[in-house]
Amino acid sequence: MDRVAALDRLASRQFDLLVVGGGIVGAGIAEAASAHGLDVALLDKGDFAGATSSASSKLIHGGLRYLRLGDVGLVREAHRERRVLMHVVAPHLVRRLPFLFPLYEDGPYRPWFVQSGILVYSTLARARLNGLVPVERATKMVPQLRAGGLRSCALYADAWTNDGRLTLANIRAAADRGATVLNYAEVVALGGGGAEVAADGRTITVQARSVVNAAGPWVDRVRRLEDSRARPAMRLSKGVHVVVEGGEHWNAALTIPHDKVRVSFAVPWEGMLLLGTTDTEYDGEPEAARVSDDDVQQVLDEAALAIDGLGPPRATFCGLRVLPGGEGTTAAAKRETVFSTGPSGMVSVAGGKLTTYRRIALDALTELGVRGLSKQPRPLPGAEGLDRIGWQYELDVPTRAHLLHLYGSLAPEVLAPAADDPSLLEPLVPGRPDLRAQELYARTHEWARTDEDVLRRRTTAWLAGSGIPV
Are 148 and 213 in the same domain? Predict the structure, then answer.
């Protein structure tokens, strides 16, 4: 459905549910609602996954440090969701990855304490990969691991993903079931059973029986559209990541402890090494969040505690976590999901984890009064038939693997136009495995409107260098 048709449809019918916000939570709600037969409209004032949902740590994980904070229930639920995402929902996008937790002589933890925690964590994960490994084995798994002062490493398993594409896959699933989805469409007023929406120089009225606010860092701003007297209920934490060269020969990621609460990660991701994250309270406007030189230096300094020979930054990005209001540091705040209902019945959802987005979506629909919800996981587009793909073109192994990861069994659909235009099989940018066919597909099938939409959220072309918008 093109934008004109989507706008006309938005203005001409009453929807069962209007979802405000096209990040991973809003996308998950739209996917679940459409699967349960609701007529859904999904809107985002920017691009889908345009904020934190394409700027996370890219991890689908139980959250080892949450055990230290006492959130055993969250860890158990996250592990359950990780297994479902890996094996049913998006096996092409969510990949298992071993993690090493280095234990240095001057570190905050003793080996026996970490070994006990890893045992509990792995039990909750139903995983056999756990325990302490000697330095020699650890350095073979991670060649750049700093060996000086290293006593041993704890070993456990989690998973990684491409967060932006996971969000898009959920939106694609909703759209395939008839949901009306539109990016660059801002809700500017709420009330009277619907919303006023500004898009493409028009302002239209969208009628909906129910509204859910999944606007992420903008959740309180949308709440004030419904009730101008609504007080802020959330606080924000800025998480900065830095991408450097490396990771090609890593057979595990690193979880680096900094104190009894904070850890950072070094993850081999999309042919690069992803470092981060910071966790600092942020009190500005969400759209004004930026990566500072001090942020970059902090990430590099913290990574250097466990990694030798780090290269210069190739790219940086930041996202904003939405946390419950309260006292104390943001690093110690619980990563819980908060639901609230406004005076006109709008349900606002804030917080939570990328890993548990499916459960958050079901909880949001429960808050809206939707009955008969099924917890049965559903494969996202591209998740089935991964072993039966017919490749119609001769592509090198890395390119095939890349396309399989991003699109799964939809990869032949992405490449189909190359039958008439072979130039679409050429690289999109030098130094990356993305093809020009992916740009065409992003604009015709995935709602991309700008170059940044294509380079940053539909492909991995932004990793080619600092000249690419981030």
Answer: no
